[in-house]
DNA sequence: CACTTATAATC
DNA sequence: TTCGCAG
DNA sequence: CTGCGAAGATTATAAGTG
């Protein structure tokens, strides 16, 4: 199939807000793909490729922009092959060679094809459709239920893989896809709760577990071989030798575990997330060996457990994994008990707790109400130093706020940015407000007189080398504008720093 | 060799 | 990772 | 209730520059 068909479909999908129209458009093209085109085409439709790192990002895309071709000629296979080529280039001179390959690809692409390619490689397709809509398109084309496709994607580890099965083998093929050790599955996700009472009101009797501030890890043991995957299903086995050894030594046969890795200090206290990531990100050389795994769920042990209730999976976990490699947890429906447990987790230096419905199955890939996360929120009253013009649906509005804490003698120290928590009404208000405080412009940044105070919620702060105060906010979001406060009432840089540990 | 830029990963 | 909006 | 897009901070490594 010609790539331009996919490109036209993407453009059509972007131009409508009607989900059903998007689904129908995708279903039309998916139904006409040759078997070998299915996986790459579905990946392209979701704005990604079958391969992870291409070594090409926004900066390269910005520089390499040949004139579009006037006639479409590229096939789905052509684009797929170009992607494989890009990913394979390395060594000295690789940047120039990647540019050459990219230039050749884009020069052969018509205008809509260029838009799709740039969106895919840049990772910002913004067509109003990702895995959810595309899965629905696959289901429609294959004549099966969306849930079947989603389930297949969860256990096959990716939507493109499930799509190929759906479109070539239909419902029976999809039904045959099962959780298989050594084959990573989409991890179950949690939605946020304001406090443990809020969480428990949704879950009922729950397993309340420490939430560690590390990286999610999925451990598979199959035929005496261990594989470790991240939340995004990247294989990190050779970065975590110690963890792999631990899993290898557990009793029983084939096994799939869900957990978190992080580093511990000599006294057993959790290291800062930044330090854990330092070890985690480092290649081999044994640096990641300082990381330890703490498991909280088991998906497979002598058979699949994903459809079993959490209560059962917990029992299996405690029989399989020693307490030292498990997360502390309690079973309760009582908010006071849960709150006390949360306090202990915080006192031990951890991020918070997870509250999980004891009766719930392991809903791979879902972010439902069965798992809720609870972590403390801190607030600061900060001063807006500058604002950036928004993109996409925020085009024409001042959006991203530069935030400053009060330093010495009327100086403000920037500690981060945020665009979160703003309603459309607030965006309108702040655009007018900050244009009124404008001092000057620098690209898409509007500098303003430091007068407007805003209450900012954060999960915490972190050490920073790029911000002048040596501290940066973590997950900052707007709570409200403080019309009752002036800049002189804002919180100080020392108050922000006091949250460091 | 030191430093910068680009990319991709975690949260 | 958080949050608001639209379907 | 679900999916999407608005963008944040940090880390590491590879490749390019002077």
Task: Sum this structure up briefly.
Helix content is 38%, strand content 23%.
CATH class of the largest domain: Alpha Beta
User: What is the number of helices?
Assistant: 17
Give the overall shape, derived from the CA principal axes: globular
Which ranges are low-confidence, i.e. pLDDT below 50, for 5 or more consecutive residues? none
Number of self-contained structural domains: 3
For the CA atoms, what is the radius of gyration? Answer: 25 Å
Major beta-sheet overview: 7 strands, antiparallel
The portion of residues assigned to helices is: 25-40%
Looking at CATH, which topology of the largest domain would you report? D-amino Acid Aminotransferase, Chain A, domain 1
Estimated structural class: alpha+beta
> What is the second-level CATH architecture of the largest domain?
2-Layer Sandwich
Under CATH, the homologous superfamily of the largest domain reads DNA ligase/mRNA capping enzyme
Structure report:
The radius of gyration is 25 Å and the shape is globular. 38% of the residues lie in helices and 23% in strands. The model has no long low-confidence stretch (mean pLDDT 95). The chain is α+β, with helices and mostly antiparallel strands and 501 residues long. It has 17 helices and 18 strands. Strand 16 and strand 17 form a beta hairpin. It catalyses: ATP + (deoxyribonucleotide)n-3'-hydroxyl + 5'-phospho-(deoxyribonucleotide)m = (deoxyribonucleotide)n+m + AMP + diphosphate.
